[in-house]
Amino acid sequence: MRLSHWLIPAALVTAGTAGLINCLAAAEKDSKDEDPTAMAAAEIKARAVKPSDWPQWGGWTHRNNTPDAKNVPIEWDVESGKNILWSAPLGSQTYGNVVVANGKVYIGTNNHHAWLKRYPKTVDLGVFLCFNEADGKFLWQHSSPKLPTGRVHDWPDQGICAAAYAEGDKVWYVTSRGEVACLDAEGFHDNENDGPFKQEDNENKDEADIIWKYDMMGQMGVSQHNMCNSSLICVDGVLFVCTSNGVDETHVNIPAPNAPSFFAMERDTGKVLWTDKSPGINILHGQWSSPAYGVMGGQKQVIFGGGDGYIYSFDPAGDGQGNAKLLWKFDCNPKASVYSVSGKSERNHIIGTPVIYKGLVYVGVGEDPEHGEGNGHLWCIDPTKRGDVSPELAQDKDGKPIPHRRLQAVDPKAGEKAVPNPDSAAVWHYVGFDKNKDGKLEFEEEMHRTCGTVVIKDDILYIADFSGLVHCLNALTGEQHWTHDMFAAAWSSPMLVEGKVYIGDEDGDVTIFKHGPEMEIIAEVNMGNSVYSTPVMANGVLYISNKSTLFAIGEKKD
């Protein structure tokens, strides 16, 4: 790929300046002067939660992590307890993100702390914990014993990686066993058993009260790879789920190509409404992204990141016959890129969550961190187009279309070629910026693979890549404002609140930036252990978990 294609927004390359201007004008017509903080607050207030709760990953359906809060702390100390309202021990590895709803705090981890007597720390479990929001008191735990098939389906010590969705008196989440579980938010503390599952420990009331479970492996034939991770989203009483269907231990075979990758189900009953298997035989590795939802161009859309590197948009209602209704799909990789599990791969899939802002969709590509660092792509997509809206189309030597292939869509050595797609929905494409103008991208100038999700406000976008670079861009043009090297891997995503951007890294540092086009670090606070999760604000309290402990952070009152 020529350097010019790295530096120029994709819409300018494929559609000309007029195409970019028209696309942005259409986006602003749909949602002019969009304030994601106000929109998130309005959506949350319409749900059966407290007005300042944060009841799902990203807080709301656009997945833009921009909560509303005042006097957010920039100073705290986990050793002295300064501004630590309470803390709660978790497992030895924690990748799940905090959700706060109706006086409860939920998070996933592993069993290293052993909250339940019947499961000592030597027993490996996926653990979903519920704490009291006011003081951090442990309330109950839902336990997921490891699958007997081992690490190919359920990697040791990884625990629960998905974030929950909570509303009213219930909470839903995806277990490490590939189940969608609906639980009573009160557990057995209300002295009621709300489901068909027997309480194991009646004495301490510390077990989860399970209302229903849906087994994706047993009932759909899914073969999840390494772990199951999908942070649920709910719209109009319907849950949308990614199954994590993937490869086997060889990383070559796909055991269940016809099993669903995405589906919709009734929130209250667990009844499946429609399914989709689009990635099919082209799944590269696993599928660990989470869906987003929005109304764009007058059309309701639920958007999934696929394990084949495509973004898919569906009509949330399906086709009425149990199948998905595809609106558009977008290949986030250059057609000539090659996939490999060696760590040298140029082709990636989607791990982060799509974010919706001003009627546009934003997503970066990534890979399992076990496979190392690599090149990345960050896209801004116009969701009003239909069909295959990828930037490029694959053609053979005779100019005929080539069906998508898993490892390489276009082989130039065979005379195949990638041609510009006249229906491309690419608004811009960012792979870095040649700041020193030497004709090549240095490490500090490049966008790398990311596990993270963007955050956007005031037309300024932030994202951290797995190599530890924080990128700040103009969200409407893709032009770079600045980058900052945290010198440690970043697994998590940024939070933007009260004019400040918070992002954690593997060294345990939380860097706090001033929100704006000029890079300014306000503070850097160490959490005492690696931070793999994303900071969350709810009801004026900042929640950050490191590998082993959850901290509720706020101004202490004497």
UniProtKB/TrEMBL annotation:
Q: Which residues span the membrane?
A: none
The protein depicted here goes by the name: Outer membrane biogenesis protein BamB
Q: Matching InterPro entries, A to Z?
A: PQQ_b-propeller_rpt, PQQ_rpt_dom, Quinoprotein_ADH-like_sf, WD40/YVTN_repeat-like_dom_sf
- Pfam families linked to this entry: PQQ_2 (PF13360)
Record domain Pyrrolo-quinoline quinone repeat: where: 449-511
SUPFAM superfamilies reported in the protein's UniProt record: Quinoprotein alcohol dehydrogenase-like (SSF50998)
Matches recorded under Gene3D superfamilies: YVTN repeat-like/Quinoprotein amine dehydrogenase (2.130.10.10)
